Amino acid sequence: MERKNVLIPQADLDRQREFEEKIRAMFASREAHPVACVDTFGCQQNVADGQKLMGMLADCGFTFTQDPKEADLVILNTCAIREHAEDRVFGNLGALTHTKKENPEQVIALCGCMAQEPRVSERIRKSYPHVDLVFGPQALWKFPELLWQVYETHKRVFSVQDEHGTIAEGIPVVREKGVKAWVSIMYGCNNFCSYCIVPYVRGRERSRDPQCVLEEVRQLVEAGYKDITLLGQNVNSYGNDLDLDYHFPDLLADIDKIPGEYLIRFMSSHPKDATKRLFDVMAASPHVAKQLHLPFQSGNDRVLKEMNRRYTRQQYLDLVNYAKSVMPGLVLTSDVIIGFPGETEAEAMDTVSLVEEVGFDALFTFIYSPRPGTKAAEMPDPATRAEKQTWFDKLLEVQNHMSAKLHAAYVGKTVRVLVDGESDDPEFPLTSRTEGNRLVRLKGDKALIGQFIDVTVTGSNTWALYGEAV
Fold it and tell me: Which one of 126, 240, 247, 466 has the minimum C-beta count within 10 Å?
């Protein structure tokens, strides 16, 4: 992929602002006040995309609601990683037939990773005639133009061409109120893990210019955001396409130089590209949280090879052992798949034993879900769902015991947290996060929200800590 083909020219971006003005003028001429509902599914990258959609809609004159019945425009911003998420989207699309019936002028759009899958867009075309607009992640930057086409032609619009992917700088963003923000530092994926659809729907890896990332983070810090997460399908390969000899550890080190009171996190990391230098930079950077999400997926070498992960169990263990050695107290989390096609019980128990050996603070665990179009979906899969569930239950048993034990060790200690919101627990009305991203439910006044404070941990369970401000 040639770098010169990646950046969207400024003239093309300016043209999108013209379509925003057309939409704003159209509603103004009707003396209408358009309302949009943006419903986002899936990962934080989707959340970041949803905030860009809201930014463009705000420039078009829209305000926002969470109730589709109140909306003139409903956007389902979708995820294609798991079958369950896909089923929810189709269920929600079906329910929108009723809102469309009550408001025939309502525009319904489907975007995100699901929309980029040919089988999905074709299903929408044939079976969901009330959906007006379908576009994939690569077309997000030209959303105003696509929406204007719907309004102008009163016809359905599909923009799901197989594109290599682009970068569009300067798209407006509507961020959540509070202390947390997300910054995409790169897009796409080159890894082609055999179970994953992402490279097919988000295109090849392309990194944002370091100065653009640094300026965005600087603006967020100045605006008062204090928990900032850098996003990419594989942040560890950031910079490989820039021809600058500038990589993810360099970016982290430069971000750390930005003055202010804040924490930097990142996800996701691929073990094959994680380096000792990355961990050294993390250890030396006060603003970089000593938290690492490093998906290992399987603890068995044969299964890892079938997954096309390109590292071994021992290589993974060597990485986490080094990371722990330079960052004592590191909070380590991971993703795990149980029941990959062809996996045996013994191989699944290799995953369980790795969990026991490493001692993860928490895991995101999944029973394998086949995604059409991936290599793994074509593999023989003799194990039954009941067998996989048994292996999965064993994994959960081990990890829940580990999480409870690790959390119990916090009781009586004083930890520094960022108070980030309110909870529904009247006894502990505040939520906060440690540097390691552990949830701490707090007693205290909501005036503390947005502050770093010291708390004494008074209790714990498998999923959270409980504490009081010092």
Answer: 126
